[in-house]
Every structure is written in structure tokens, then in C-alpha cells.
Design goal:
single chain; alpha/beta; four-stranded antiparallel beta sheet; 15 strands; globular; binds 2-succinylbenzoate; binds magnesium ion
Length: 376
């Protein structure tokens, strides 16, 4: 197949409520979508999980657009692609910018699955027909507010609760949750806000039987994480620190974590996600699929990757209606009793709702690629 056209859109969607992490508060999501088209007129969709500010990693939707226009599109021009696993290699000359690469690679996977008339999850090698889901709850103004969110989500059947923590919102919060819910599958995500000298606080968290502590230390660290994993019973899960299979291998060899959160965008696409998944399976580590407050397109990709056999822990791919008044796919991604039933339609299995998408679109650009068959 040849990619002949790429359409980029910048969308803005308001979150139903604020989402606060240790690094900042999201009230809206500004992000890019791409639609790729092949020589037969098949299309595929991808979403970038880069935010509008470089808080989580160094990318933003604007840097994604520049990388796409100046480097990724030129690399795709004139390329005959047999299988989407080749896209990773085509983008190899460009360092990092993983979220920019992943949005295009994901769209080409969707296109390929449609072209070969199979659901994306089957094309990826997935085996599950329904997936288990948890939910991530942001930092709240007070513990009562947090507890009422937890009550609601537990009643809705979510399979585990993740709470965001930061200095001043950690041990007391976890203690309060455990007092009410001694056996709830519970974890905490620090988004890199602690340092080695906070070890005593992390040891206190060790008493609460958490499923894991996610990314307690710096976003580029695997050394100090190995130091603390040695003294903690609670598994460390790495998110921000892992950008590739090589990073995963080094973290595992150092003993920096026992669990990896795979985010398709952070690792540069579905192909790299599969490689990390397979490596962790060999090494006996659990993996789960993280979230980046995605719209329906990115959410659909998360559902597809989670069907692989070593996604043994519930992910963060909660119901679309938890984030948005209206989401841009038909149907929207829905969680029932803690499960998402995986779609059977070809490709990502959720149709883009173009007319609704248009109402959230602030900019749009169509690129026609020079192809092998261009007659001079
Ligand atoms: O660290 O997993 C994270 C949201 C924004 C940035 C980083 C993270 C998160 C979440 C929410 O935890 C995941 C979601 O519900 O999409
Ligand atoms: Mg995280």
C-alpha cells in the first residue's frame, strides 16, 4: 500500500470536569488527529496524545505538527508499505518525537486492518474479546470529594481505582481510602513528583497493600527507581521513563520496576507497544495500558492493544462519557461493569463521527504525498 494523502486536524474538546495531576490541571484537551488515505481510497485514523504544553513529556501538538510536516510526511513519500510494522523503521532516522510518530503509525495500522478486512485488535495479535478496565482519579480539593468519586466508580464496577498523588496529597489520602475500602484494588500515580530523599514517605505507602506505585521518581530516571524498588514490597510501575523496548529492557535488567504502563504514544506506536508487551511477557512482568485523556480515536487504539494476552492488569481506558459530553466516535467507547466489549467491525471498530468532529476542529490541512507513480 502507498499513503497518498494525510489530513491533519487540530481539535479542542472540553473535559466534563478538571483533571489534576502532580504537574498541572487539564480543563480541556487540544490535540491532533490524522486521517491517512491509500491508493485504493481506504482510510485510517490516528490521534496524538501530546498535550498543549510539555508537562508530561517534551512534545506538544504544535511540535507534532512540525515533525509531521517537515519529516514524517517526506519519509512516507514514495514508500511502498507491505505491513504497518515497517512504519517504525521508516521513521527511524527521526529521533524521539514518539507521539508524532505514533499518531501516523496508528492511522496506518487502522487503514491496514480495514484494507485486510479485520478488526485492528486481531491484526495486532490480540486474543481477548472483552477487556478489564480501571479508572484514574485526579487530585481533588479534599478527601470527601475524592471519596465520593471513588464511591461512584466502585459502584459502576471499575476493576481498580488509581489515585493521583503529590507531596501533601499522599499518605493521608491513601490511609483514608483504605479505612473505607480495605480490599479495593488500589494504586497511586505520582507522575514523577518525588525524589530519592522522599524514600520514607514511599515506605509508609508500603503498608497499604497497593497494587503498585506508578512513576514516583523523575521522568527520565531508572537508576533511583531501582534503588527504591529494592526496599519496597509494593511493585513500582514505570510510565514516563519508558519510551522504547530498549528502555524497558534496561529498566528490567536494573530492577527499576515490576510492572510497565504501556502508552502507545509514549513508545512511538503500536509496533513498539507489541515489542514491549512481548518482552515483558517473556520476562514475567505484568503490563497494562495507560491513558492520556484521549478522544474516541485514541481510546479505540487503546482498546485494541489491550486485547494482547500479557495486558494482565486493568488499564485506564475508562468510558468516554466520563471525560466528554460528546465524543467523536460512533458508538462511543463504553465500560459496562468494569469491562469493554471489544468491537467486531474492521479497523479500530468505532466510526469517526465526522460532523461532530468538525464542530471541535479549529484547524485542518490536507497533504498530498508525492508517490512512486507520479508522472513527471
Ligand atoms: O500518568 O497516566 C498518567 C492523564 C494525563 C497525563 C498522564 C496521566 C494521566 C492519567 C489519566 O492518569 C488517564 C486517563 O484517564 O486517560
Ligand atoms: Mg502515569
Amino acid at each position: 500500500m502507498r499513503i497518498e494523502q494525510i489530513t491533519v486536524r487540530k481539535l479542542r474538546m472540553n473535559l466534563k470536569g478538571p483533571f489534576t495531576t502532580s504537574f498541572g490541571t487539564f480543563r480541556e484537551k487540544i490535540f491532533l488527529l490524522v486521517e491517512v488515505k491509500d491508493e485504493l481510497g481506504n482510510t485510517g485514523w490516528g490521534e496524538s496524545v501530546a498535550f498543549d504544553a510539555p508537562w508530561y513529556n517534551e512534545e506538544t501538538y504544535k511540535t507534532n505538527w512540525i515533525i509531521l510536516e517537515d519529516f514524517l510526511i517526506p519519509l512516507l513519500e514514495g514508500k511502498e508499505i507491505e505491513h504497518p510494522s515497517e512504519v517504525n523503521d521508516i521513521f527511524e532516522p527521526i529521533r524521539k518525537n514518539n507521539m508524532a510518530k505514533a499518531m501516523v503509525e496508528g492511522a496506518i495500522w487502522d487503514l491496514y486492518a480495514k484494507r485486510t478486512n479485520q478488526p485492528l485488535w486481531k491484526a495486532l495479535g490480540g486474543t481477548r474479546e472483552k477487556i478489564e478496565v480501571g479508572i484514574s482519579i485526579g487530585i481533588q480539593p479534599d478527601i470527601e470529594t475524592l471519596m465520593s468519586f471513588i464511591d461512584t466508580y466502585v459502584a459502576e464496577g471499575y476493576k481498580r481505582i488509581k489515585v493521583k498523588i503529590k507531596p501533601g496529597w499522599d499518605v493521608e489520602v491513601i490511609r483514608a481510602i483504605r479505612a473505607k475500602y480495605p480490599d479495593l484494588p488500589l494504586m497511586a500515580d505520582a507522575n514523577s513528583c518525588y525524589r530519592l530523599e522522599d524514600i520514607d514517605m514511599l515506605k509508609e505507602l508500603d503498608d497499604f497493600n497497593l497494587m503498585m506505585i506508578e512513576q514516583p521518581l523523575a521522568s527520565d530516571d531508572i537508576i533511583d527507581h531501582a534503588h527504591i524498588q529494592k526496599v519496597l514490597k509494593t511493585p513500582i510501575c514505570l510510565d514516563e521513563s519508558i519510551h522504547s523496548l530498549e528502555d524497558a529492557r534496561k529498566a528490567v535488567e536494573l530492577g527499576s520496576c515490576k510492572i510497565i504502563n504501556i502508552k502507545i504514544g509514549r513508545v512511538g506506536g503500536l509496533t513498539e507497544s507489541i515489542k514491549i508487551h512481548d518482552y515483558c511477557k517473556e520476562q514475567g512482568l505484568d503490563v497494562w495500558c495507560g491513558g492520556m485523556l484521549e478522544s474516541g480515536i485514541g481510546r479505540a487504539h487503546n482498546v485494541a492493544i489491550t486485547t494482547l494476552s500479557n495486558f494482565t492488569m486493568p488499564g485506564d481506558t475508562a468510558s468516554a462519557d466520563r471525560y466528554w459530553d460528546q465524543d467523536i466516535t460512533e458508538p462511543i467507547v463504553t465500560v459496562e461493569n468494569g469491562y469493554i466489549t471489544v468491537p467486531t467491525a474492521s479497523g479500530i471498530g468505532y466510526e469517526p463521527n465526522i460532523s461532530l468532529m468538525e464542530t471541535f476542529t479549529e484547524e485542518k490541512k490536507v497533504y498530498n504525498l508525492r508517490t512512486l507513480n507520479t508522472v513527471q
